[in-house]
Design brief:
mainly beta, eight-stranded antiparallel β-sheet, 3 helices, 42% strand, binds 6-O-phosphono-beta-D-tagatofuranose
């Protein structure tokens, strides 16, 4: 089905719902929803929540102004879904890494897995009440050279006073598999100087910028240099406190015990795709995840659900 037919079919199914529109951004189809509490835009590619803002407030999610909205490349921003591995496959636990057949040298293994670049199906859009709209998107994965394990992913997005995201993973094949995953949430902020990240004080973390050395700090995280830190088994919600926007965004994980803190800062910003050189001043990634020792082993027919809730106060 071509783009036009897909859009027509989506409009026929959901276009009559209050506050729901189907939009085309160059090569990518998006569903925008607006209710009395908030608005959001979700792209079918990667089931990527690209925008979320509460009515009358500033965007909660950061989205690059340099996105090119081309098929096959996830947008820079919003909440990309990293699955069935996180980051560089080589940095994943052996139990995850050894599932990936040694591909020929010409076949590069994409960072953050492959589902963020694929088109998901929109299963449903439901107006729960005047302040809550729920969308469900799914991706059926057949065994492939890159991932020999049939799987079913479903993303449930609840747009309202809070943004609640749940990803369910089901093993639909005949062999147990193990995956790591992250909801790679890009948060919008006033400017890095006016912000700090609270809730990770006293936790050890891997500093991926210093050969994964284990470090710990008892102070809130200032955003004043490149940050690429992986925290394990975090129990508290994490908060981005933003003095300039006079708000705090609370990131509450569900069944996702790990958290990645990332800001590319000056030098890496210049090397990133679809990322303006000074964009590091307006964003921070706080990524709820299942990584390293918390990679999840799923036997045939079993499922797991994990996610994140963003609230503003
Ligand atoms: O989550 C942090 C990270 O792994 C960084 O190391 C950086 O690579 C970032 O993800 C963005 O990755 P991407 O593949 O989206 O450019």
């Amino acid at each position: 089905m071509n783009l036009g037919d897909k859009i027509q079919a989506l409009y026929a199914k959901y276009g009559s719902l209050k506050g729901v529109t189907v939009e085309l951004y160059k090569q990518l189809i998006a569903i925008s929803v607006k209710n009395e509490a908030a608005s959001a835009t979700i792209f079918l590619q990667g089931a990527q929540v690209a925008e979320y803002k509460r009515i009358g407030e500033r965007p909660v999610l950061w989205l690059s102004e340099s996105c090119d909205y081309k098929a096959g490349k996830s947008l820079r921003g919003g909440i990309p879904i990293c699955w069935p591995w996180f980051g560089d496959i080589e940095r994943n636990p052996d139990v995850v890494k050894h599932q990936i057949p040694q591909l020929t040298s010409e076949t590069s293994i994409p960072a953050h897995g492959f589902v963020r670049d694929q088109e998901w199906a929109l299963d449903s859009v439901e107006l729960i009440d005047s302040e809550t709209t729920q969308l469900v998107l799914s991706l059926e994965i057949d065994a492939s050279e890159l991932w020999p394990y049939p799987s079913l992913l479903k993303l449930t997005v609840s747009v309202g006073v809070e943004l609640d995201i749940k990803l369910s993973v089901t093993n639909t094949g005949s062999e147990t598999f193990c995956f790591s995953s992250a909801l790679h949430t890009y948060l919008n902020l006033g400017t890095v100087e006016s912000c700090e990240v609270l809730g990770l004080e006293g936790y050890e973390y891997f500093d991926t910028l210093d050969d994964w050395r284990v470090r710990k700090s008892n102070r809130p995280i200032a955003i004043d240099k490149e940050l690429d830190q992986i925290y394990s088994n975090v129990v508290s919600p994490v908060q981005l406190k933003d003095k300039q926007f006079n708000r705090a965004i609370t990131v509450t994980a569900s069944n996702a015990p790990d958290l990645v803190v990332w800001n590319p800062w000056i030098d890496k910003s210049k090397r990133l795709s679809h990322f303006d050189d000074d964009a590091y001043k307006q964003m921070i990634c706080l990524e709820t995840a299942r990584l390293l020792d918390n990679a999840e082993s799923l036997s045939t027919g079993s499922s797991i659900v994990f996610g994140v809730k963003l609230s503003v106060n």
